[in-house]
Amino acid sequence: MRRAVAGVRLAEVGITDLRYRKGQTGSSILEVPGPESAAKADALAARLAEVFRGTDVRVSRPAKTAEMRLAGIDESVTVEAVAAAVARVGGCAVAGVRCGEIRRNASGLGTAWVRCPLVAAKRLTTAGRILVGWSSARVEALAARPLRCFRCLELGHVRLKCPRDADRAGRCYGCGSGEHLVRDCAVAPKCPVCADLGRLADHRLGRKGCAAPPSRRGRRGRGGAAAAPVASAATAPTQRGVSQPTSSAGDPPPTPLASVA
Predict the structure, then answer these.
(1) Degrees (nearest 5) of the Cα angle 215, 155, 25?
(2) Closest C-alpha among 161, 128, 117, 142 to residue 24
(3) How far apart are CA 245 and CA 80, in angstroms?
(4) How many domains does the chain divide into?
(5) How far apart are CA 207 and CA 242, in angstroms?
(6) Which DSSP symbol is given to 132?
(7) Backbone Cα Rg of the chain
(8) How far apart (Å, rounded) are the C-alpha atoms in residues 107 and 72?
């Protein structure tokens, strides 16, 4: 942060108010409130990127996102076409849209998982359907996923603050195997967390019936302590539904900008 403060004068990018907080992953998050906050945050991010060029520090512009499912996609449509359609209707950049593999049912119609900026998601869910190729795909908003550690696969914390000894990173969420990912899983479900705990495990990770216990506070012991990262960009959590959060005064939230010194 000292290097950031020394390298950028806030007045030069029109910023008179700035809020700082730490992210769950250990990153530093700078929030720019007020009018034209998005443009000012973009300008600050660009200046910080220049200051930290050639270093291990990453600067990003996190944005609140939402997940949805698009159903009824015809066989001519590609993942790229889905992303382009979402960006067109949602009014966002294609680079801000993530689209999963299109999975087809017995009738040949496809379904795709999509994550995009929250503002774009609101437009899509309000529309209800969007034209993708020659098919009118149905838009279904998905509930936010709970916070899950990618190391132990349990809920309530992130990898950096994992208090568990178990390392389940890279295991299939469907059957617990380390040989493939859940999208390629073709065997009977077996929750990796519940199986390790000796509990009923005839389900996929996170599905109904998953009995993973809540996380304990604190870090792992000295022998398994996680090292603090040199740099990490903040990631925006997906939001439940697509409602735009507001402050207690009814104002829109400040635009976040993340960097780490």
Answers:
(1) 90
(2) 161
(3) 30
(4) 3
(5) 22
(6) E
(7) 21
(8) 10
Q: Are strands 28-32 and 110-117 parallel, antiparallel or unpaired?
A: unpaired
3-state SS of 52-107 is CCCCCCCCECCCCEEEEEEEEECCCCCHHHHHHHHHHHHCCCHHHCEECCCEECCC
Token pair for residue 28? Answer: 């530093």
Is residue 230 in some structural domain? no
Cα–Cα nearest to 153, from 209, 100, 210:
210
- List Cβ<8 Å contacts ≥24 apart for 95-98: 96/63, 96/120
Alpha helices in 197-240 (DSSP H): none
What gap in Å lies between CA 18 and CA 144, rounded to an integer?
A: 28
User: Nearest Cα to 114, choosing from 75, 80, 66, 72?
Assistant: 66
Domain final residue, candidates 90, 110, 141: 141
- The residue count for the chain: 261
- By CB atoms closer than 10 A (0-12, 13-18, 19+), residue 120 is buried
Task: Determine contact, residues 29/41, Cβ cutoff 8 Å.
Answer: no
Q: Which helix (H) or strand (E) holds 2?
A: helix 2-7
Residue whose tokens read 């991010």: 45
Give residue 250's pLDDT: 39
DSSP sequence for 163-203:
--S---TT--TTT--SSS-GGG--S----HHHHHTTS---S
Q: Domain of 174?
A: 163-212
pLDDT tens, position by position, 178-196: 999 888 898 999 999 999 8
Of the residues 108, 141, 174, the one at which a domain ends: 141
Give the pLDDT confidence of 5-22 residue by residue, as tens digits.
999 999 999 999 999 998
Could you tell me the pTM of the whole model? 0.61
